[in-house]
Fold this sequence. Notes:
The structure holds 3 protein chains of 3 kinds.
Chain A: E1 4-9, H1 13-16, H2 21-29, E2 34-40, H3 46-58, E3 63-68, H4 71-84, E4 92-96, H5 98-102, H6 108-126, E5 136-138, E6 143-146, H7 150-161, E7 166-169, E8 184-185, E9 190-191, H8 192-205, E10 209-212, E11 215-223, E12 226-233, H9 248-252, E13 258-259, E14 268-269, E15 272-273, E16 285-286, H10 292-296, H11 301-305, E17 318-324, E18 326-329, E19 333-335, E20 352-354, H12 355-362, E21 383-390, H13 409-423, E22 428-433, H14 443-452, E23 457-460, E24 463-469, E25 472-479, E26 484-490, E27 492-497, E28 499-501, H15 505-512, E29 539-541, H16 551-569, E30 573-575, E31 581-583, H17 593-597, E32 603-611, E33 617-625, H18 635-639, E34 645-647, H19 652-663
Helix pairs in contact in A: 2-6, 3-4, 6-19, 7-8, 7-16, 13-14
Chain B: H1 6-18, E1 24-30, E2 37-42, H2 45-51, H3 65-72, E3 77-81, H4 83-94, E4 103-107, H5 116-123, E5 127-132, E6 136-141, E7 148-151, H6 158-161, E8 173-174, H7 188-194, H8 198-209, H9 217-221, H10 249-261, H11 270-274, H12 282-296, H13 321-324
Parallel strand pairs in B: 1-3, 3-4, 4-8
Antiparallel strand pairs in B: 1-2, 5-6, 6-7
Chain C: E1 11-16, H1 20-29, E2 38-43, H2 51-59, E3 64-69, H3 80-97, E4 105-109, H4 115-132
Amino acid sequence: xxxxxxxxxxxxxxxxxxxxxxxxxxxxxxxxxxxxxxxxxxxxxxxxxxxxxxxxxxxxxxxxxxxxxxxxxxxxxxxxxxxxxxxxxxxxxxxxxxxxxxxxxxxxxxxxxxxxxxxxxxxxxxxxxxxxxxxxxxxxxxxxxxxxxxxxxxxxxxxxxxxxxxxxxxxxxxxxxxxxxxxxxxxxxxxxxxxxxxxxxxxxxxxxxxxxxxxxxxxxxxxxxxxxxxxxxxxxxxxxxxxxxxxxxxxxxxxxxxxxxxxxxxxxxxxxxxxxxxxxxxxxxxxxxxxxxxxxxxxxxxxxxxxxxxxxxxxxxxxxxxxxxxxxxxxxxxxxxxxxxxxxxxxxxxxxxxxxxxxxxxxxxxxxxxxxxxxxxxxxxxxxxxxxxxxxxxxxxxxxxxxxxxxxxxxxxxxxxxxxxxxxxxxxxxxxxxxxxxxxxxxxxxxxxxxxxxxxxxxxxxxxxxxxxxxxxxxxxxxxxxxxxxxxxxxxxxxxxxxxxxxxxxxxxxxxxxxxxxxxxxxxxxxxxxxxxxxxxxxxxxxxxxxxxxxxxxxxxxxxxxxxxxxxxxxxxxxxxxxxxxxxxxxxxxxxxxxxxxxxxxxxxxxxxxxxxxxxxxxxxxxxxxxxxxxxxxxxxxxxxxxxxxxxxxxxxxxxxxxxxxxxx
Amino acid sequence: xxxxxxxxxxxxxxxxxxxxxxxxxxxxxxxxxxxxxxxxxxxxxxxxxxxxxxxxxxxxxxxxxxxxxxxxxxxxxxxxxxxxxxxxxxxxxxxxxxxxxxxxxxxxxxxxxxxxxxxxxxxxxxxxxxxxxxxxxxxxxxxxxxxxxxxxxxxxxxxxxxxxxxxxxxxxxxxxxxxxxxxxxxxxxxxxxxxxxxxxxxxxxxxxxxxxxxxxxxxxxxxxxxxxxxxxxxxxxxxxxxxxxxxxxxxxxxxxxxxxxxxxxxxxxxxxxxxxxxxxxxxxxxxxxxxxxxxxxxxxxxxxxxxxxxxxxxxxxxxxxxxxxxxxxxxx
Amino acid sequence: xxxxxxxxxxxxxxxxxxxxxxxxxxxxxxxxxxxxxxxxxxxxxxxxxxxxxxxxxxxxxxxxxxxxxxxxxxxxxxxxxxxxxxxxxxxxxxxxxxxxxxxxxxxxxxxxxxxxxxxxxxxxxxxxxxxxxxxxxxxxxxxxx
Lengths: 665, 332, 145
């Protein structure tokens, strides 16, 4: 039998104004289990909390009901109060007689009556409360960052700087990601490589960072603090620790006709290659799809020229198993395919390019060594048309585009336009847009400079069609402000393609049991208050895998994710929420219903020995809940027909006791 | 009558017992009367010849008994399964309720089971023996010198009249052919009730369910009701109560029972078969099956091993409860 | 003068902690009134609500039961309310099949920002249940004290 103390708060006149607090305290005195009942002006005040503490001692209370404001407001406060007086904090229940009673009812009589009923329900619940102790689990002090773009690099650097080991898994042969392909960055126009490559080198040289390049995560098990991850190190046919990155092999390889993905296929590379000069790790990789030796067994030039002896044609994929305390997803984005946008003639003309291709065209390390030349004939273009929102903000065109705004296009287009006008003042630049969105620090000023100082023609309107004709591209567009149809014979058309999450994100989300939205962006634990955490404990989000964002925003989120990881890794033990599901093994049928509805994969099954009535023991399949993973939603408790699965803090009999107390008339 | 004989099944069982493939046989045994069969375990050939019987009254679904028997008996158990029983068998397997390795399942053909109540209605009381002929049953009574012949089709049980499938969905060995899924009118009765006004529906169920004596026969026979501890027997569940004193108590029991088996019920009809008060309990289960089929897509529990039942599943565009409930208090 | 006591229904409202309970709090903070007949029980997620709780409430004399959770897609536990939606659809349809008044049960999605919706929903629900009168079809007379 519990010894319950009831504490009715006046909250000044907030409660006492419409609820007769003395009457409530008096009425609850006679409830089963109640040994003490009182009221006070402000229970949450120091004096109020002292009343509770003293009563716990004086009356040897085993449970407490505070009739006050919402538990969302002060449940934590009163739990601490109870704990300070030596009572288990989970023996406290709150009857919400402010937000859900005094504030909405004007009549003292009905307000008081309702407050009493709410108090009775809370007393009925506490009568069935049991002390709860949060579970503890250890933390593996190593983090995993999936994706080695600027998001992943920044996250890894910050975690490493705090002194924790961190591994980066990057599926490409080098880290660097999309930012490595960019030429300049808005709104400062500093060179992307100049600010990125030092960070890549930092990552490579940091003692706490291990880079698994050309690798993929293939399996994730475990839970927050204790993830078990399998990493596939794809065979690169070059021994990473021996290759010096001299690049001789990449010059001698006779297979010269491999589309160079780093330059988006605008030029060719060899079958053995280093993606770009500043690649990290700077080692060669053999492209098995094109290597003559791997395909036919005849060639071996690279092995012959390699003085270090790093070539290994017999290499196989290797699998590494590693334990991590936290996982950061930084899988990034890709421009969407332009194949379905026939109206812009992307697949018909080489001179219709995407913005990322344009970045490579203007980059000194790109296919044209930074000279702006038409891909078709290598001539200098004099009239360039930029088309905004290609596939972005696409309502009712889900089959080819995206409904969301890709966020970065307005700014990089302003950058592109400005760079062209700066280098080639003889070139006319047109930008067709739906809206120009510049909500960032120094963004609008940047855009206005493009218009005002650089004379870029911004035209509000849509491009309807691009028709290649001879050496020209006929652009048909509407000018919405002047209400005119425009025809521009352009030399080059640049499409601001929408961006979408990398295709590797979806299978990864499944492995991590992390949720995604309909666009395959990872969802946050809370869109406003927990934007860098995934709802799955121990999994954090960095960069564009969570939604479109520019570099400064990506870096901020990367550092935020890192700080969350550091906050997790500094702990020796994780203290869980004790209000989690618990299975009564004696009653468990082993039917798997609970396992099927658990969103966190917290339920597993094991064969356990049970004594049978005839004193023999038999193995039986029973559910067990991983307390470190369970978040306490209770979905399993309803899926369980026998009631073997119950939720601590919200047990079946507790909720039914509340129901009874409310319905009793 | 059934197309396989008791004798042939007995012989097959005896040989499997003899060669040691199985340690026991789960079948049907004669009770006080020929029509009064009960599930039984046989461990020797003599026991089989003495007691085993398969006839038009072998309605009991034996799959549920595997739970207990596979735990009690070391070695394999031979079980005879009629087509509809195999669905329960699969459902129990997907709920991991027994070890498949410990079972040797023989699928046997079924031409429908006879309803003793229907026979009584025709011949009256005092039935002493029933003989099966080609398409009829010869019923001997205390009061008639000559046996009375009733046609099998006339006395089929409701569930057999609305047989959903003659297909064996799980077996190790088949006697006869695998059979096929049938199209049945099993939801007609549910639809009839749905078409009533709310008051009429309430009156209908009030009349039916108030006869419940809470004997728990429906629960005990149900192959989906296999909980290690039933909520209605558990003092901590809050719903443990046996006396059908209040107006709602028995409704609560039957709603919860039907809800607990929703998505798992194969519609085998055992609940109604065993109900001593002749309450059409299967209609509650069929209502759930019909609703789930119509709302979430066709689903037959036990059709395959390891399916995901509708209530432990969801889709992002499921309809809202207000759109699913079709009736209403005021509906004419 | 009527001496027949005005019928005051007993309404049990199950609210999920993250959205609807917060929505109810917001209704309170904004002083948006709804009848005192509504008593809220806090659950972590709408998917914690067992059909047994609802039947129990009716058995013990509730006249209406309403279940509120986060909007589909917004569940704090990502999928809880999807299960709720199926479970309650099936349960309510069954209650309807048994001839029990449909307006005594309801599921409503109320976010933490929808204080006004919470109050409006409760007002409307209480009005409907009041119109139905006392729950006779689902109560267990033995449980009345």
